[in-house]
Amino acid sequence: MKSVKKSDFASLVKYLADDQEKHERVVYTSVTNCESIDLSAAVIEVTTIQGMNTRAESDKTYHLILSFRTGERPDDNVLEELESRICEGLGYGEHQRVSVAHDDTDNFHLHIAINKIHPTRLTIHSPYNDHKTLGQLCEALELKYGLERDNHQSARVGSENRALDMEHHAGVESLLGWIKRECLEQLQAASSWAELHRVLQAHGLELKERGCGLVISDQDGLMVKASSVARELSKGKLVDRFGEFKSQTRPVTTEGTGKKYEARPVRSRLDTTLLFARYKNEQQGTRANRTQEWKEARAKRDRLIADVKRKARLKRATTQLAGGSRSEKKLLYVMTSQSVKGELNKINEQYRRERERLSKQYQPLQWADWLRREATKGDKEALEALRARVVALGLKGNTVSASCGELKRTGVKADQDGITKKGTIIYCVGSSAIRDDGDRLKVSRGATREGFEAALRLAMERYGSNITVNGTANFKSQIVEVAATANLQLTFTDSTLERKRVALVNHSTTTKQESNNDAKDRGRRTGSGAGGIGAAGRNAGAGRDRGRGNFGVGFARKPNIGSIAVSPPPDARNRLRNLSELGVVRFAKRSEMLLPGAVSGHLEQPGAQSDNALRRRVSRGELTPLSFTAADQYIEEREQKRLKILDIMEHRRYTTADVGVLAFAGVRRIAGESLALLKRNEVILVMPIDEKTANRLSRLAIGDPVTCTGIGLVKTKGRSR
To answer: Of 134, 399, 452, 554, which has the fewest CB atoms closer than 10 Å, so is most exposed?
Structure first.
């Protein structure tokens, strides 16, 4: 900061910690190298340390901002590591600092307020060429933590960067940008000082000497360095081309050309002429109203002060005329003076508060800030103007959108938290945040099921029922699960996601039907009817109880049981009903078992007879869409970690092309689903499996060979499944 007043540590922390009545503004805070983690206590401690250094005359506060690319939002642990590494690289590792992260703009950013005074040595530290050091640190940290790469080597001088910053934040074209757009080519083609002055004069500009160089100024006195417009326009290169500098002889005029620099909005995809005229008229009216009310406030203050002084003069005159001793009069004079001072302090305090209110009420706004304020009020033209800026590139990451961009009226209950300078509306649904840039919706990290459902409903009401989902595999699986569970009437453009959604919906419907049937069966077995009272009812209930006690719960539902104590049919007499009539075969190194193919071919009815009369059917696990969703979720997690940890192998889904002998690498359980890890060369294949297969594989050692014959079919040394 060029002004020491602006770099006051207490004011800086107050600004950083102010949530401005927004849910998504302050999302992370930390205090380092202070005795207390409370922000107020840390401010008192830092200001005390700064006051103990009386020799330093420069700024004692270092304000650093770490801004991330659009869509990037590192975890809190990563933020802590980044803050620590960068501060240590700048030489502030032992210094006191307060860090606050803001997420109410288009780019997530971290503010770091650093005390430049060492807490024990009380010396000031100002890093040399800190912008170069920061560039090197950022490049190294981007590689280490897998962040999106950025260009940290500036190719422009300071004045060019400041002009671009003004155009980006204020949304108004700078004088430097206007000169480059209007007359740069003509200035570069000039062959003499006279021709150079003529080109500038035609555009209402003037070339002057200032210090050791040249500046270009307009009629209002706004100036830029000539070398900032182009390196060919520096004084040294122009003197080498045209000789000694010659000033302009004629006064600057724009008559006949009509070309003159005016602060206008930067070029965008939307014509904002009428909107900008409204902005200028409103700002002029704001300045006039502020001036008028300030005059009225000053007049009121002066009038009140004059009344207090007049009353004081009357009191002193009355004291002088009244009788009494000298000491009594002196005491009355002192009391009058104290009363006057107290009333004057009250009047001045009231005037100060009124002036602050007027400054806040009639605060001048830049073009982009005015558009954001009007868009917050519901002005659609202002919102479209924000979104039409060239810098608005759209949301990235986990987004929900549609193929058609037609907006529909929305009725989803969501609180508007704010609007960014790119026209992104931030909604709050419970603890989740949804960002809307007009083309797609982005769900914040760590969103709840309520947030996902609100985003889907908002997308349906705005864009229709054909929804497009972009993002990580975990995000897509969560969206599909929420859409199926909430029974939303939509379709996904991605055929894979749509198949998963339909499968989940069918599975849910089947489960509900089975539960309803079970409930009906239980109602018929336990409900009271005509025979529920009396001897017959009691005997029937006792029979049911005996059945459950002898054969276990669920035995009554097995088919082909027959009545108890009834002779078997003639074709089943003198047999062992609990065994199947199958041939016996013997395998080497295996126990004897019965197979359907072992039945003799000369029998009257070849093939195995059904033994469902008393034996329960073997329950075979089936793979559901949730199994494959869990596999994708695990693969996504491992691939994200592989970007940070180099020794993690590549993970991918097992396919039918991977059939053969593989090495066993373990069993994992994700979201209630079992996954088998199989190693092939330097790749880990993730296969969804059922519970029995998981139990068998858990007995194997890491590295044991297994044979895969299909999706979910694994053969080991023992029995195959």
So the answer is: 554
